[in-house]
């Protein structure tokens, strides 16, 4: 019978004789019975068979229980027309892993069964040793938080732990024996083979950052370590994955925040100083050059902070701001510093505590250049509180000062006076000489009043040719009367307007706080009434208000 096979399928027989697995072919006979038709050289060697097995059945070779077990497997293949697997062990401990494959004729009937048995004795022994080792390290293996798996020397996965399955979502049976694991990303076979060559040549690889694809499609970041190991004279690798996805995300967020802050720090139009808890400047942005003219290097080499190099009051303000900020408070204050060229720069400063883990380790000081803004505000204030023609304060300004004078007089129990002054016959002069001449006269008139005032005395134009003077802290009525007389004497001197000499007189009314009134409305009204009394009595004089 073997001769018949050798003549018809000689190439097949030659190939089967050369492989390391046991190959048997059995013909299916009625019954059914299974007759050995072919055994390769490896089968003869391992099983101790020869050509006498050909033509025999299972019962001729094995005991009843073993023969029935094997027959059932063959009947399963015959009925299902599908391959099946099972294991057989020998009395000497030999273990074979058998695969039965149906051979069908043209009528789709199973006529023969091809049996291929692989000697897995060594592998099973290794598995037993590994199982024993795994049992000894069971707590580490089963309860480790890191993914751990064993890799065969061909790169396929042999065993995985529970953390591996939880981390990547793959069960062991889904990846076991797979040459290119499905969790690899951007796989490059050439690089992979070069890596395996180095690994199984004894080189370990520690803490490599890699990306791995989970079963659900998500990508995680892992810290991968590979170490070659030897079991029963075979090479394996133990691989550990530490999930660092969250850590990498935190790092990315931290780096992004740092880059954002650096952009904000570097590109901010305001000066930003970074101060340590000892008050020393550790960093400053480029705006310091634009605003103060100093380079960053010059600032860092200074022994004292620029904000502290001011007047005593400002230095105290700075020290107080630093102290309060280190205690966790944000402080705002203003400071005058000097540009490298020597000009004064006005800064609006805000301090911010730098906190790490709840502790204040330093300060950020943000200095905004408000020089131009303050200048504009002062100009607007001057416009709001001054007369555009004479440059004197206006009604709004002097009425606020009267309120302040009342408060001071109440507190100190003192007196003050108001002088209400009006130019006599100004309308006729304005009409005859023109408005320009009238404006020039008002300016000269205002200057004469101002020149008669002491530093603490205030004169304001409150409308037309009317002026109001505040004399704070007079001793008595006589003081006010004397000052009024001096002013009127000065105003009587001739004026030179448009090439003409003009002799001008004025009238004045005087009121005293608190004699003639307790508030500004009353005091101004009483001074005005005294003024009209002077005009009604011939002008060119002053009158003290009389109740």
From TrEMBL:
Q: PROSITE patterns from the entry?
A: GGDEF, PAC, PAS
Q: Which Pfam families does the record associate with it?
A: GGDEF, PAS_4, PAS_9
Ranges for domain GGDEF: 414-547
Residue ranges of domain PAC in the record: 82-132, 206-256
Listed Gene3D superfamilies: 3.30.70.270, PAS domain
- Domain (PAS): residue spans on this chain: 133-177, 257-329
Name the domain of life.
Answer: Bacteria
Q: Please give the SUPFAM superfamilies that the UniProt record associates with this protein.
A: Nucleotide cyclase, PYP-like sensor domain (PAS domain)
Indicate what this protein is called per its UniProt record. Answer: Diguanylate cyclase
Lineage of the organism: Bacteria, Bacillati, Bacillota, Bacilli, Bacillales
